[in-house]
Every structure is written in C-alpha cells, then in structure tokens.
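Re: beginner question about structure tokens

> Can someone show what the tokenized structure looks like for a real chain? I only ever see the sequence side.

Sure, here's an example I had lying around. Input first:
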Amino acid sequence: MLASEIARTGRKCLQIYELQAPITLNQAAPVMGTYYEILPETKVCRVYAIGVNIEDVNEDIRIQVTIDGIVKMMSFGTFTHSTTYYIRKTQDPIGRTSGYWWSITPIPASFVLNGKSVKIEVTKYTANGTGNLTSVCEYGVLKDV
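And the corresponding structure tokens:
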C-alpha cells in the first residue's frame, strides 16, 4: 500500500516476504563465458541462500548479481568436483568499507539480500571439462497480508 493511500484512508498493510519454492539450475555441458540464470529477474524479493556446484575439477566460477540495476561481479577460485559452495555476504572492518563482498565457503552460510529487482547469474571462466553446472537459490517475494 502506498504511503499516500495510508494517509488518505488510515488503513495500514502488513507486508511479508512469502517463501517461494527453491529455484534450481542444472546446466549440462556449460559453455565457458556464457551466463546461466540462477534467479531470473524477480521484483521486490529477498534472497536467503545460494549454493553452486560444478561437476568438474579445477573450474573457476563467476557469479553476477544485479540489484536494482547495479551489477555486482564476484569471481571465485577453483572449485572442487562435487562440492557445493555457498555464497555469503561479508564486510571489511579493517578497511572500514561497506557494501557487498562475497566469498564461497563449503560450509553452509545464509545471508539476506533485498532489492526492488534482483537477478543472479553464474558462469565458468575456465574450460577444463563439460560437467554439469548446478545451483539452488532460496528466496521470497514481498506480499501484502
């Protein structure tokens, strides 16, 4: 509900993020440099967790997150075959900088990412094999109740 409508009618609206079914990616024989959607552009959403896996040895992965039109590119080191890596939000207190930095760790980690518009894509930027590129994303969309 818009603030102007609340002022006019006196009614208030409760909004929650309604959990959606996890969205998955299972890309056979991914092509180096081609981006594959983990989460297609979704309006007013909250991302809770993202996991990525490549069924090859020594493949380098890059994640691209677009939040409200701002692209955040995240490059990661070499993935180990059949290991799921989780994306988490981190900060740099030593450099006293804030914003979105990401790392991948084989320990499950959750975070919250909000946006009026969010899109998440993944690519491999090495060509060491043709194993499947897989991912799962847990998210919710804003609903009025």
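Each token stands for a local structural state, so reading them left to right follows the chain. The helical segments are 3-9.
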